[in-house]
Amino acid sequence: MTDPRIPDNTTGQLHRVVIVGSGFGGLCMGARLKQAGIDDFVILEKDAELGGTWRVNDYPGAACDVPSHLYSFSFAQSARWTRKFPSRDELWAYTRDVAARCGLIPHIRLASAFKGADYDEAGGFWRIHTSQGEITSTFLVLSTGALGRPLIPEIPGLARFQGTIFHSSRWDHSFDPRGKRVAVIGTGASAIQIVPEIAPAVAQLDLYQRTPPWVLPRPDRAITPIEQFLLARVKPLQWLYRFKTYLQYESRALAFAYWPQLGAPARAQALAHLRKQVADPVLRAKLTPSYALGCKRVLLMNDYYPALTRPNVHLVTEGIREITPEGIVTNTGETRAVDAIVLGTGFDVEHCLGPVAVRGRGGRSLVDSAGDGGLEAYKGSAIAGFPNCFMITGPNTGLGHNSMIYMIESGVAYVLDAIRQQQRDGWRSAEIKADVQSAYNADLQQRLKRSVWATGCKSWYLDHNGKNTTLWPGFTFVYRWITRRFDAANYIIERS
Length: 496
Ligand code: NAP
Prior knowledge:
alpha/beta; FAD/NAD(P)-binding domain; 5-stranded parallel sheet; 29% helix; globular; binds NADP nicotinamide-adenine-dinucleotide phosphate
């Protein structure tokens, strides 16, 4: 549709939907729009290739700890997964395959960085600023994810380091670790996948641990060609297998979100895993967490502890005082010289939108709307003051126990229904009522109080005030239920 009211536009077109991000969330939104017969949409991707976090995170050993058959779209299942837990390469190949199969390639604008957006109140549309110019759209869907901005720690002297230094999610492939002295800072999901991969190649690996993670065995295995054949030929098998895996993972919500004491058997299993793999009692003591299992993300790894028992690997728990041009000085004053530092220090989840300004009604920015209370949304998607703007996997939609793809599909269904209703009912804009959003979040925070994430540890799930702005507080099927339909009655509906 060409709209004469819109003066400045790369194509002269008012799009129906602009989606920001071509990861799982953005691709799912695009695929569902296509399936609904809505063809006028653009997917913005800042980089030269499509794919989200599984393209960006290409560090050695990168893999997903949710099974392949569950960590994939319900509408684009694959019988070709080669392992129970997918590697990063397999996941990225899957996203490219989905983009091609669902006809999304012509919609994706590569190397088009999202620079911000302004809601035009008079026109009732979004002006979206990209590195390639401005485009306009009735709906703006933000699908940029929470784990996109590396958290660079404020360690004194970091900038003075003369060797190679990079973040786990920005792996420097020109760096050859063979025979080098390498420090890895952090022991989260990323770092513990990197350590076993590089330990055999490096001369020395210093792993700086601030808090030990809980680690469970990863029941990984190859999916045999016969299984792949059967899954491809007998479709109900695929669904059954996926459903069984879903139920198995979903049952964990009981311990995470409702009764943390149910985590006792998993805790015993994790301690047995540690005892079995680490014989040295001193090292074992350093690796034993002192907080409730599940409070931070539980990690599944079979070769992490064995890597730490190698003679060339040192677990450093004294803390970091500073970084010098040659290496790292611990809090005990010991200097440990290294050639490279890998920052496995996680992501700036609290400021995941970064400096990008999304300005809604009255020119108010999303960042300002968050204030010190942290970003809140209604159903993890809509925010008061931002008409026709939706987030995919926005605040409090993250999971510690199941597949994020399930949450993405739920959120997308909600946004798609909003877009359909707008078409059917002819309204101009929908904006969530502020009191509805507040009541929704008050209830959500109340429910989070009983969860394992509120048992006192520090994690990226919590913001600087200790408020959980990231996780969904319960069963995923409840989120699916509340997002099954767009509830226009809870929105201020503007008709033109
Ligand atoms: P993370 O879980 O936030 O871990 C960051 C690590 O760096 C923690 O061990 C933290 O210690 C440490 N750290 C941070 N600042 C530090 C400092 N100044 N000095 C010393 N240590 C410091 O980050 P991540 O490992 O990148 O993982 C983030 C999330 O990505 C995961 O929780 C998960 O959701 C996702 N992920 C998933 C997979 C998967 O298999 N599906 C794989 C990788 C990542 P403290 O614990 O003491 O804060």
